Amino acid sequence: MARSRAAAGQTRTGSTVSVLPVGLGGAPRRATGRAKIAKGVLAAVFAGGLLGACAGETIRHGHHFSAVEIQQIQPGMSQEQVRLTLGTPITTSTMDGGAYYYISTTKKQVAFMAPEVVDRQVLAVYFDPFGSVTRVAQYGLEDGRVVNFSERETPPQIAERGLIGQLFRGIGRAKVDPNAS
What we know:
Elements: H1 2-8, E1 10-13, E2 16-19, H2 33-54, E3 57-62, H3 67-71, H4 79-86, E4 91-93, E5 99-109, E6 116-127, E7 133-139, H5 156-159, H6 163-167
Antiparallel strand pairs: 1-2, 3-5, 4-5, 5-6, 6-7
């Protein structure tokens, strides 16, 4: 009985019987050509998934206009016509007749890294005091400059005083006019 189990690829360990794949002559069966191809395809798909995760993602925010859409805006158009053509602007200005600003940003993010701004476009539509388009301008990332809205730095005149000095800074500074009665 032991021979027949070995010939069939079965072994007995304790009280369990396990079945092993065997080839001719009782030797374990080797992977066939199909199995090798399947393993190779599986490895290629896995490697492609890993590399695809590192390829990066393009993130687009705001209004992205084509040249055709921008050319539709002509001098003399009203503010309402501009809104119907381009949509609601991101921000507006009321100085000297006003302006509409359409802002778009393109960022690139690789895996878990912080996104990096690769392009920023500002489409500005300027109006005269009567609300008619006077000109259209486009500004890019190269036209801008970095502006710090919050420097998180105490101004020097305050930093020189301590807490108590700041609390009592007005005491003793009153000027008394000696000629006053």
